[in-house]
Amino acid sequence: DIQMTQSPSSLSASVGDRVTITCRASQTISSYLNWYQQKPGKAPKLLIYAASSLQSGVPSRFSGSGSGTDFTLTISSLQPEDFATYYCQQSYSTPYTFGQGTNLEIK
Amino acid sequence: EVQLVESGGGLIQPGGSLRLSCAASGFTVSSNYMNWVRQAPGKGLEWVSVIYSGGSTYYADSVKGRFTISRDNSKNTLYLQMNSLRAEDTAVYYCGRGDWHFDLWGRGTLVTVSS
After folding, report:
1. How many beta-carbon pairs below 8 A join chains A and B?
2. Of B45, B58, B100, Cβ closest to residue A44
3. Rounded to 5 degrees, what are φ and ψ at A14?
4. How far B53 CA lies from chain A's nearest CA (Å)?
5. Nearest CA to B20 among B9, B30, B29?
6. Least buried of A6, A100, A101, B71, by fewest C-beta within 10 Å?
7. In the predicted model, is pLDDT for residue B16 greater than 90?
8. pLDDT tens digits along A6-53
9. What pLDDT score was predicted for residue A107?
């Protein structure tokens, strides 16, 4: 199975900050990497697919990059509604594993 | 409206069985890859199973041989039959649409396995 490791596990930041979350795969996954946002009690929401494609309706302050084994999610200017947990997920092969999550908190 | 609605969760004793349903509207289940993803209380997301549009199915090792994914095209509904349930299967179960990425999710249904 492909292991996905996110860092950091938690992050404190302020409104307006630029934030980067990283995700590393245990083997190459090309660009089969997705990012989701989850708020408490809610279903996950797709933000970025295929490593760098912005899902329709998602604000342009979210961006993704990377290929192979190393990937990043960047939020260019944090907004109050962005405080949530973020997960990466590989869809290169089953089982479609998720990272452990990054909890983004208000500083 | 395009949406997924899960149902069928509840409290079940260890060793018991439960069938979850995921009713789709606004699109055709059989034309899409459909998945189940679960989240134990306070934990992260765990992919459980997928059924491809062609009918092939795949499972996480943790549920292989105990869970079965299926669909009813006439009802436009996805199912997850869960047998031999264990305490560690306690989670919110979400259905999700998508092949390489999951662009539509239901709200989830809670399964609690406890005596």
Report:
1. 59
2. B45
3. -110, 155
4. 16
5. B9
6. A100
7. yes
8. 999 999 999 999 999 999 999 999 999 999 999 999 999 999 999 999
9. 87
